[in-house]
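Researcher: I'd like a structural prediction for the single chain below. Treat it as a standalone chain; there are no partners to consider.
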Amino acid sequence: MAPPRAGRATDRQPRMQHATPDLNTPTGDAIATTTCYMCACRCGIRVHLKDGKVRYIDGNPAHPVNRGVICAKGSAGIKQHYSPARLSKPLLRVGERGAGEFREIEWDEALDLAARWLGDIRRRNPDELAFFTGRDQSQALTGWWAQQFGTVNYAAHGGFCSVNMAAAGLYTLGGSFWEFGEPDWELTRYLMLWGVAEDHDSNPIKLGLGKLKARGAKIVAINPVRSGYGAIADEWVPINPGTDGLLAGALIHELLRTDRIDLDYLVRYTNAHHLVIRAPGAADDGLFARDAEGHPLCAVREGGTLRHARADLPDIAPQVVGEYTLADGRSAVPAFQLLAERYLAADYAPDRVAERCGVAATTIRRLAAELAQAAFDHDLRLEQAWTDTHGRVHADMPCRPVAMHAMRGISAHANGFHTCRSLHVLQMLLGAIDVPGSFRYQPPFPKPVPPPNRPGRSRKDNGVLDAAPLGFVHGPDDLLVDADGKPRRIDKAFSWEHPFAAHGMLQSVIRNAWAGDPYRIDTLLLFMANMGWNSAMNVGQTRAMLTDRDPATGEYRIPHVIYADAYASETVALADLVLPDTTYLERHDCISLLDRPISDADAASDAIRRPVVAPDRDVRPFQDVLLDLGARLGLPGMTHEDGTPRYPRGFAQYMVEHERAPGIGLLAGWRGANGDKHGVGEPNPAQLERYAAHDCYWHHAVPAAGRYYKMANRDYLDWARTMGFVGSTAPVVIELYSEKLQRFRLAAQGHGAIQPPARERARIARFFDPLPFWYADTDLAPVPAAAAETYPLAAVTQRPMFMYHAWGSQNAWLRQIAARNFLYLHPSTAALHGVADGDWIWLASPLARIRVQARLHAGTAPGTVWTWNAIGKRRGAWKLAGDAPESRDGFLLNHLIDELLPSRADGYRYANADPVTGQAAWFDLRVRIEADPAPRQAGHRVETAPLRRTA
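Model: Treating it as a single chain, here is the predicted structure.
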């Protein structure tokens, strides 16, 4: 008889007996709904509890964001909550900074000490406090707190992440990709993904992509790396990093060359037809021609007669090309003419850009043709009547079923602002912004271009800033500069160096504070910003700066560092005072429409988190701590006139009672004394109970007639005004041509009362072009021009779906998916450099070099290397074992990224950032591969240069 197969039951090998599982026994004895915190999706979750302990987390089927879907990160929230890395008590440093030597203290001692440090600062000079927060999702509170304290030195995570994308959208169309807009998942037939990360907004995107795949829509992924969403795309376009704007320009070139554009859309909804004055050297050069009341003008031809008319009137047929003479003799051309002149030039022709982009000219021409075909070669209409802002009734809504979505991949470059503007121009030409099938605004957007809130510049008599520290600069007079034009903020945001830095510049604060450039600070207050590790460029020297002492005094150059976090991250050891935060299951949070909304295109939404378990450690929610500190300091917004705390019950009380304007609070649902108002209404004492009863979210539908053309839809804008989203029902004009950018260029050319210092003039004049353009200037390159050829490879990171920033990569369940990272490169790149699969090699930049293990990956663009971000850990951090793979073999590319650009001829070093927005340009990294004498010997190492003693 033949021997039995291995693993097959026989008479000699009896079947293993299993107990019959009881599939009907509940996981726990209670279920509490709340909002996930494991990434930026902010999905609805159900937390299953037993005896007051978390047993299981799944998705909430009723929640509009994820509709029950949950990802690995979300389900692993139980391990985040019970992480061994959780902090458990306030800590006061007793040893040298960086040694990790602390003593536990009580909260009253910790808060008294913090209040003493901060109180001294506020009495002396509030700007000596730099308050910088990480991916905290609480900026509506933290920014307001900084305003009450009176410091201009507040910033959030966005300047290190994606401010280029947000600013470009808000300065162009009054919304932006990702959190302020989305593709029309129901109707689009062609979707282009530009540099989209896998960790952001993952469940909604996965749900949407599933709809597209089921419907047979085409998905094109433009990315140097094929992973995640790119892996399921119908076509992957492996582009060279930093050239997305050049590819977009080539697509614009082709659409213009073949006359495949939507001129009606351009005239109705953009400023393409507005006349731009052509008067080189004059103070009004590049500005719009206007009538005596300030209305922009256009040229119209009626019956063979040419005349000028208001460009904002309905039912006109304006000219979009040609040169025209104004009544006063000045020359002017339509903005579209200037766009056509730029992009029809040979510089953007597919044959010219193909090699630089790494995309064949035939592919570029085909993609342009496919975009046009998807947009125009159909007669699809949505049978929905609507009324525009001029009162005209439209019987239906024509479709443009081509959509685009973009994320960090286009943003984290020195040319990212103009790259994103180029994508928006591409959408305009296709008529594909907020029409059926295209990119769609999410309420409370669109806003005016740009939004009206400007950054705070001066303090009132009570020490409070006149506006929040972050905002939108409308002109040179909004900049935070002194009488000599020098930066007033420690990070140099909103200065002539980076005027549109709408999120601040997280990556610059430590370097500038250490160097005293532009001045010294007293206290660095950080909240969930791991700036001693993965939220730093130039990690080694950043850590050295935080521990460096002033030779003249023997004191630390940054005297006080207060750090709040829930976990023992790498930055904890670099703090003087550690304030332990709760986990997200132990506190209230607010996902506010004033902050980072969770709306979809068809409804406004906000949400709360609520405590579903009680802390088992001596920790407090940082939001409560901030309000407590504010009361101890006597900050106006946090105390009554008699000095007693205004919010003694903490953040939950603040969420309900605080108003930014009459009737406008952090939460839009169930307002009014009886909870019967939405959007605008007086505070409702029972508001949180109403949210809790509704699974912790509020979802308010946009009227059916207002769901598209929101920028010029009376039905939408009337509704938005009643909700408090906009102050006016005037249409939002999409800006193909940016007059605000041109005003900065004119200031650099010597016009206006406020002008940049001499050093900044050429830089402003070049980069504040009113039309988007692509550039790769050598003075913005992180490698000196003389050494460029010695660093031939582009290096980028990707975020995996299963982790999100640093806090997920210490999670026991998620570590089982990947506990270390590799350097991935295309086989042809490996062969060129003599690298075999699995070799340990050195990856070097002008700043440092790191020893990493290489893996061959055909889904990588030749000439590019990449790795997963935030997996590498410093030994001893996060309570990981001493031989944990994350620290033994894992690594960060951040060690190789300089936070400063090479010295200019005058010796000055600008931030390694976009000159328009200050966005950290960490995807511009250039590296080379160096052989290791023992390529099969494992082990990661870092070699960095000594701390530079000058800025």
